[in-house]
Amino acid sequence: MERHYVDALRTGDELQVKKLYYAFRQACYGLCGKYGVSPDDAADIYQDCFLIMRDHAISGKLYTVKSSFKTYLLGVAKNLIFNKLKTDTLKSTFDTGQIGGDESVDSEDSLTEEQRIFTLSFGELGENCRELLTMALYRGLTNEEITQIRSYENESVTRSHKSRCIKKLKDIVNRNRNKWTDKNS
Q1: Residue 34 C-alpha from the chain's centroid
Q2: Any idea what the Cα angle at residue 70 is, between residues 65 and 71, rounded to 5°?
Q3: Which bin fits 111, alpha (ψ -120 to 50), beta or left (φ > 0)?
Q4: Contact yes or no for 77/31 (Cβ under 8 A)
Q5: Buried b (16+ CB within 10 A) or exposed e, 86-96
Q6: Which of 39, 57, 127, 162 is the most exposed place for a label (fewest CB within 10 A)?
Q7: What would the pLDDT profile of 30-56 be if each residue is shown by its tens digit?
Q8: Can you state the angle between helices 39-59 and 25-34, rounded to 10 degrees?
Q9: Using CA atoms, how far apart are residues 106 and 162, in angstroms rounded to an integer?
């Protein structure tokens, strides 16, 4: 990777960062256009992408990258685009406007005992674990995507956090299952 770009981001050289920001903006917007991302969303994606690049420069990650700055930046942008498209797809799939007025989503009456215990247990997790497990299990993001979004050091950190969160969730579910069983005995 071009060391002078990384140095500019790391040191916060305002003039160089501004030049760098505008140098690759159109390439990112073009990539967003290929995937049908709106201009407003493309602007948001590029902002996020540039902030991620800055964070990676500050942490020193970019000094070991073998690709060019532009290639890496567009790779980050592509992951952000895919996340955006996944989120939009999920939102349109579960659009509450498509549900009839007398139908109920997650109504207490329609949940099984196991679903109630799981819902209660999931709510007891810390916010970080809930977000991480939602990204991994509900949104179906890969460890690589989660690593970039959460700005973890590497995928091993993501796997480790995910494993700990799943263990916590299992422990909470078992505790709540035991309470439920004792209460209903």
Answers
A1: 21
A2: 60
A3: beta
A4: yes
A5: eeeeeeeeeee
A6: 127
A7: 998 988 888 988 999 999 998 899 888
A8: 130
A9: 25
Domains of the chain, CATH where assigned: 3-83 (1.10.1740), 110-183 (1.10.10.10)
Half-sphere exposure of 119 (CA within 13 A, CB side): 10
Q: What SS3 class is residue 51?
A: helix
What region does 60 belong to: left with phi over 0, alpha with psi -120 to 50, or beta? left
Rounded to the nearest integer, the mean pLDDT of the chain is: 82
pLDDT in tens, 105-164: 444 456 677 788 888 888 898 888 988 888 888 777 888 888 888 888 898 999 999 999
* Residue 151 C-alpha from the chain's centroid: 10
Task: Return left, alpha or beta for 95; rule: phi > 0 is left, psi -120 to 50 is alpha, else beta.
Answer: beta
Phi, psi of 153 (to 5 degrees): -60, -45
Closest CA to 136 of 126, 127, 147: 147
